[in-house]
Each structure stands twice: as C-alpha cells, then as structure tokens.
Amino acid sequence: MSRRRHSDEGDAGSQPHKRRRTSEPIEIEDRLESLICRVGEKSTSSLESNLEGLAGVLEADLPNYKGKILRILCAVARLLPEKLTVYTTLVGLLNARNYNFGGEFVEAMIRQLKETLKSNLYSEALYLVRFLNDLVNCHVIAAPSMVAMFENFVSVTQEEDIPQVRSDWYVYAVLSSLPWVGKELYEKKDVEMDRLFNQIEGYLKQRQKTHVPMLQVWTAEKPHPQEEYLDCLWAQVQKLKKDRWQERHILRPYIAFDSVLCEALQHNLPPFTPPAHSDDAVYPMPHVVFRMFDYTDAPEGPVMPGSHSVERFVIEENLHCIIKSHWRERKTCAAQLLSYPGKNKIPLNYHIVEVIFGELFQLPSPPHIDVMYTALLIELCKLQPGSLPQVLAQATEMMYMRLDTMNTICIDRLINWFSHHLSNFQFRWSWDDWADCLTQDIEKPKPKFVKEVLEKCMRLSYHQRIVDIVPPSFSALIPANPVCSYKYEEETECPLPGLAMATTVSNAIKNRASNEEILIVLKDVPNPNQDDDDDEGDGFNPLKIEVFLQTLLHLAAKSFSHSFSALAKFHEVLKNLTDSDEGKLHILRVLYEFWRNHPQMISVLVDKLIRTQIVDCAAVANWIFSPEMAHDFTRFYVWEILHSTIRKMNKHVQKIQKELDEAKEKLEKQQNKKQRDSGDEEDMEKNSEDEEGQLEEQIERLQEKVESAQSEQKNLFLVIFQRFIMLLTEHLVRCETSGVDINTTWYKNCIERLQQIFLMHHVIIQQYMGTLENLLFTAELDHHILAVYQQFCALQL
C-alpha cells in the first residue's frame, strides 16, 4: 500500500523525486515497525484478520526488508511480553509461508537469548524463553527440542559452587512457561516431562529459604499466606497439571489458524547450553508473592481465581508486563490495564489494585519509582470513577486493619502513597472509621500510621488545612504547628547562659557583619566545659554553637530559602565551630532543638549541612542513634534523613570512582595513540609524555580519594550497624532481666529498620560483608540480631 503510493506520486521535477526515493526505504521501515508494534490494539477488524493481513504485508516485504523485520520481531518478543501470543501467531503464519524465514527467526532469537543472559537482563531473557515456548503451539519449533532445552535449564540445579539464585532463575524460566506450552509438551513428551518435574520437585525440597521473612510484606499468614515465589508457582503448575493443563485466560489467536499452522514445517532449536556462572553475574533476587484479595473480597461479578490457580499467575504476570512496558506514560499504562483482554471474566479492578500494591511493596525495592504508582492509581480512578475508587478504598481499609503485622518498610511506602493520593482528592477520607486508633498507645502501628500520614499531608498542604480536614477527636494525632523554638527569645527570672551574647550576635548579623567579625564576637562566649582559669579557648564550646546557630536560624526562619542563604553566608563560621566530632554532633542537636516541630525543615537543613561539608555522614548517623533522639527514633522523618545520608555517601564514592575510571581510560587511549604514532616527530612525543605524566599524577590523586571515600563509606555502615546492635542488645538484655516479652512495638520497628538498611543498600553492603562478619555480626551475637544478617546473606546465596 505504501509502496504503491510512493510510485504513483507525480514527478514534479527530478530533484524532489530523488529526495523522495532516498527516504522511501526509511519510511517503509517506519511503517513496518508501526504495523508490527500496533497489531492487536484497537481496531474495527478482528485480531485474526489483522494478523492475516499483516502476515501478507510482511511476506511481500521480506525480499527487501528481511533484516529489519527480523530485528523488529525479536525486539517485540523481548519488550512487549503482554502481546506474546499475538506475535507468536504472526511468526507462525510467516513460517507457514516462508520456512527459511522461520528458521532465521529462531536462530536470531537464540542469539538474542544468549546475549541477554550474558548481559544480566534476566527479565527480558524470561520473555524470550516464554516466546520460544509459545512458538511450539504455533508449529514453528518442534516440541522435543524445547523439552531438550528445558532439560539443559534444569541441569543447572546440579552445578556445584553456584549461588542458589542462579538455579532458581532457570527453574522459574521453565515453570513460568508451562501455562503456555505445558499441554503441548506433555502430549508429545510425557515421560521426559515427568522426569523433569521430578528433578524440579527434588530441587525445590532442598532449597534454602532463610531469606523469606525479610521479604514478606506481612508477618502473619492469615488471611492470605505470604508464599515464596517458586513455591507458589510450583503449587499453581501442579494444579494446572492435575486439571489436565486446562486454563481459560491466555489469549491464543493461533487456534483460529490451526489448519494453516499444522501444515507448516517445524524447526529444531539448536542445542542451548546456559552460559557458565561468572562472579560478575547479577541474578534476580527472590521475592514473596503479594496477596491482598481473594474471592470473598469481590462479592459481585466474576469470581477471583484462587491463589493456587494458574489463572491467577497468568493474569498477574500479564498486568506486570503491561506496567513494565508502559510505566513511563501513566495515561497509556492505565488505559492498557483497563483494556486487558478477557476483563469480563475476572474482577479486573481487584487484580489491578493488588498488582500495583504488590509492586509498590516489593522488597528490597519496587521495580519503578514510587511516585509512578501514585500517579497510575490516580489515573485509573479518573478512568473508572464509578468502580475503582471503591476498590482502592477497600484495599486501604484492609491494609489499615493489618498494620500490626505489616513490614515497617512497606508502612513507609503506604504512608507516602496514601498522603500523596489524598492530596489529589482534597484530603477527603472517612477518618471516623479509624477512630479505633484513638484509644491505643501513640506508638502502636495504627495511631502512628495516622499521625505520619497527617504529617506527610501537611508537607503537601499547610497546618491549618490538616486541622480542618480531620475530626476534632483526632487532635492528639495532628502534627504540631511547624514553628521554631528559639530559646533566647524571652527574658526569664533565671537568665539562660548566653542570652546577652545571643542579642549581640543577632545585632551583628543584622548589621551585615562578616564571618571574621562574627568569630571575634563569639570569642567572648564562655565555655561551660572549661574552668575560668583555663586559657585554652579553642576547644569544643557547646554554648558558642548554641548561641550562634539558634540566633542564625531564628533570623532565617521565614523559609527554606532564607535558611539556605544564612548557612551559605556564614559557612566559614559554621566550619570553624564544627572542626571537632563533638562540634558536628552538637550542631545537629541544636538544629533539632530549634526545629523540633518542623521535621521537614530538619530533613532539608541536615541535607544542606552534609552537602556543604559542615557535618559528615558519620556524625548524622551518630546523632540519630544518640539518646537525645530516642523520643523520635521511630519517627518516619528520622529514617528519611538516615537513608538520604547513606545515598549521598554512596553517590560521592561513585562520582570519584567514575572520575578515576575516565582518567584511566584517557591514559589508555593516549598510550595506544602513542604506539600508533611512534614514527612521528620528537616534540610530539615529548608533549605526549608530558600529558601522560599529568594523567598518571591525576590517577594517583584520584586513587587516594577513592580509597579515602570508600574508607569513609565503610565506616558509616560500621557506625550504623554498631549502633543498631548496641540498642537491640540493651533491649534484649533488659527484657530478659525483667522477664518481659521482647516483641514490643519498638523492637519490631527497630529490627525492621535494621532489615531496611540491609535491603535498601544491599549492593554496597555486599562489598563490606567480610568486615561486618569479622567485627560485628559474629557468632557470639544474640541470635535475634544475627538472624537479620543471615537472612540478608541468603538473598544472594
């Protein structure tokens, strides 16, 4: 059609015609890509007629554009897994018309599979395996060769000295393909498939599952068991086998073309050996299957499939695939989810909500940025205003009821989502339904959750608005008015030490005094840590820090910008006051004391102090675990600060490492160039040697900086873990001595915060595991604390 249009166009002069002809192949290639990518989307014709028409177009274009068509089909197999059976049918039709093309496609897919496995792209490799499997249904690949490939996959479980996550992936690749191809393989090769099943069952029975508690969203097994992903899939496949491989939810367009496809010649897969394990391989982490709903939660309409029915797996897998393909465009993603094929046979809204929360709560981290899920749910509510908000409200209510057993990390994410969601719907919520939290201790999960949600809502609004939206009975949970606490504001009967100096400093700042002038003024502040006759006035002086910082923050309290400007202007004074570790710790104490009612201000100013190198990361960690912060230790904002601090440290190390790698690369290029140009003049060679010398010096300096930064990074983690161990050990000893149950709300929070550090920063922590094991997580440590470390180690075993 497009080719005819180009050839029929009028010849308005030779030059324009030439231009059109040079762009014609590109236009045709773009048209082919568009036709292939959009097949199966909204159309007035049936899917079958669209596929038949497209197969005809592609067959006609094969002589000129075979390479392009192969590349596009290989790409959609990898990147659009939700349309898997549509594309396998298309390949089946092309194979029936052109056997050689079918063979070339299978070879290209195997090449691509090997490349993705070598590049650690395991989710894409999984889709390619599934695609190859479905080609068995389309009579493109012979069933015996697919069974042979599966046998090679399962043989990985017999390899020695490999991490469990490697064999897990290959077993998962086999099991997760069976809903699509199990029936066909069992009909052709039942004996071999039974042998394969026995091997998989034997492997699953001896697998280590130490990691499971660390990855569960809820600790309770009721109302829904929180199953490890391979165990759950094995139960689903076992049930599918028992039901004679009958499932009702996979779209199978190739059935309509059975008479055509069964006449086609099939290809044997080339022998496929999984790439050998290497130390730099990064296998997918195990996960726990998230369950929130069952058939009793969706009383009207279609019944929700049971947790061990393979339909549940297929639906969830397809919804995950849609999100993975379209997550960058929330409107497209929402529309695609709501137009899921077969939506009339299932309670789709319940499945969508469960899958989205399953991804949001996935540990150690969600597949996509947290805010994407908020935006997606808002978009879904707009598209389905009559039904989806009710399901979402029901889900929120369920999660609130189960807060007691919910993982603290997931509660954090729930707080962030719920507050952001409310801010888009005028903060409307039936707060009275949660009045049960008002009679509980403020540290219990429910009142704590409501308090933290309201605090987050205040960040997205303002204090009076929050006071107005919640019932008066909730006043105890409303966050404090975010005003500062300036200790030198009023004269009292017993004057505060430093009050007169604070007034002097305030006047000096108002009169635009320089850093040097402020330092001269501060020299007169007496040091409470020294005797009057002690002449050494340069030691740590807490009063000096209090007088200056309280006054500076008070004068700049109007906004974030004012505070940032003040810290920048008096950077020299602050550096002078914090030249010791005690000074760094004390400046954070004073900041907290001044802004104790404004957690957001504390967070952003601590961030600023780190960026401007007034305090270091280890000082922030020590401050968070200090006795002065015990009152706020379980508050959400405190852990925001700590994780932000760790991320800054990690980014700092990465930045210097990148600079070092670039310098080494530059030197290597320089040396290669020198070897190539070795016959050139002497002065060029001299310049080259000078440049090399400079680069070598730069590399040496950067190497020292990297080692110093890594040492600082390791020290930060040692400080954090040491503090955790001290706090938890004190609690365990205290409970044992008093004969009290250790499982208090504080203990649950603290142990799960320890897990959070391991999970959120696992890539970095793995570099220092030897040090951690030798210095902190030794065999003598209490088994409650050591269990967390062992669970973490098991994640990559």
From TrEMBL:
> Entry's InterPro entries?
ARM-type_fold, CBP80, MIF4G-like_typ-1, MIF4G-like_typ-2, MIF4G-like_typ-3
Q: Where is this region: Disordered?
A: 1-25, 665-702
The entry's localization annotation reads:
Cytoplasm; Nucleus
What region holds the MIF4G domain? 29-241
Biological processes, Gene Ontology terms: 7-methylguanosine mRNA capping; mRNA export from nucleus; nuclear-transcribed mRNA catabolic process, nonsense-mediated decay; regulation of mRNA processing; regulation of translation; regulatory ncRNA-mediated gene silencing; RNA splicing
Q: Which GO terms describe its molecular function?
A: mRNA binding; RNA cap binding
Q: Where is the composition biased (Basic and acidic residues)?
A: 665-678
Keywords of this protein's UniProt record, alphabetized?
Answer: Coiled coil, Cytoplasm, mRNA capping, mRNA processing, mRNA splicing, mRNA transport, Nonsense-mediated mRNA decay, Nucleus, RNA-mediated gene silencing, Translation regulation, Transport
- Give residue spans, biased composition: Acidic residues: 679-697
Listed Gene3D superfamilies = 1.25.40.180
The family classification in the record reads: Belongs to the NCBP1 family.
Name of the protein:
MIF4G domain-containing protein
